[in-house]
Amino acid sequence: MLRALLGLPPRRWGRSLLWMLFPSVALVVALGFVIAELLGRNEETVALPVFARLNPMRMVMEASERLPMILIFIALMMVAIYTTLHVGLRPLRRLSLLAADIGPATIHARLPVASAPREVAPLVEAFNATIDRLEAGWRAQRDFSANAAHELRTPLAILRAQVESLLEPDERRAASEEFERLGRLVAQLLALGEAESGVMAQTRSFDLVALARDVTMDMAGFVLSGGRIVGFDSVVEHLIIEGQPDLVETALRNLLENAVRHTPIGVEILVTIDADGLVCVSDDGPGVPPEARARLFERFCRGDPQGAGAGLGLSIVRQIMERHGGSVRLVPFPRGACFELDFRQRI
């Protein structure tokens, strides 16, 4: 019963307790009634033999005569047990709420052992030790990605300069494209490490409309050079939200780059913002294949296996939105694809 209760929201514990207690209490009262009849504790049954006392018809009649008293006794037992369990499980409810709040942003938090019941304290300590190991592994993986990406930037730039100086003009273009791909991968690894940092450092208020407009204008040259059209539209002049503008800028850039890489020449890419804090980066291209939608935001998942991307852009966007308490999703669109960033909780 305890395991079933801990799996429910705290507001539903009382109702679940009542449903769980009633069969048990009724069974206990029924057994108590049978035992009382078997022992013959009243003057009417003490002279009867045992088999006569257990006659079903007689016991049914006896139970019907004492039904009000039995129901009152059942109700009193349920109230007493419910009150005891409700008070006794209160520390577990608090611990369950604290455990539910532990996530990437609060992975440093631990459950208080001192406030846990003595019987549950070993379980709380084991849970905290498990979180310690998970945090150590998670931070080691994050630091490795960030450090490796950071250390690769300088030698990659030097290697690119040396290789391009040795190649013929015809071969230089193919080599430059490969170095550009490696450079994007390194930048994405750094962005992923920052998005997974778990600490909302430098959180401040900023204008989402102004930031999105600046990013769109800054990337207009890149979009137009690829043969696409880019536009920006907002129903409000200003929209102040709380968060990290650098990470939000990274998310928008990734969506715009993703739209350029996965659409043909001549496609129009549009960035729109509504008054509720929804940012949409849409295009009128071929859209996302149905078989790729389920794993679209997973790491190293590429919609086009033959494409030049590493499959990290959308997963970085998802991490950034989770860090801001929002979400990113692919929403139905008449034509092409529309990726929606939901900042409504940050307004």
Give the SSE layout.
Elements: H1 2-6, H2 13-39, H3 43-46, H4 50-53, H5 56-65, H6 67-88, H7 90-100, H8 121-166, H9 169-195, E1 204-207, H10 208-218, H11 220-225, E2 229-234, E3 240-243, H12 245-261, E4 268-273, E5 278-283, H13 290-293, H14 313-323, E6 327-330, E7 337-342
Parallel strand pairs: 2-4
Antiparallel strand pairs: 1-3, 4-5, 5-7, 6-7
Please name the defining characteristics of this protein.
single chain; Helix Hairpins; 5-stranded mixed beta sheet; 3 domains; two-stranded antiparallel sheet; alpha+beta; Heat Shock Protein 90; 347 residues
Tell me what the structure shows:
- This protein has 347 residues and is of the alpha+beta class.
- The chain folds into three domains: 87 residues, no CATH class; 85 residues, Signal transduction histidine kinase, dimerisation/phosphotransfer (DHp) domain (Helix Hairpins), CATH 1.10.287; 143 residues, 2-Layer Sandwich (Heat Shock Protein 90).
- Helix content is 59%, strand content 10%.
- The protein contains 14 helices and seven strands.
- It has a five-stranded mixed β-sheet. Strands 1-3 form a two-stranded antiparallel ribbon.
- Kindly provide the name of the CATH class of the largest domain: Alpha Beta
**How many domains comprise the coordinates?**
3
Q: Strand order, main sheet: write it out.
A: 2-4-5-7-6
CATH topology of the largest domain: Heat Shock Protein 90
How many β-strand stretches?
A: 7
Termini gap: 42 Å
At the fourth level of CATH, the homologous superfamily of the largest domain is Histidine kinase-like ATPase, C-terminal domain
Label the structural class. alpha+beta
Helix content: 55-70%
Tally of individual helices: 14
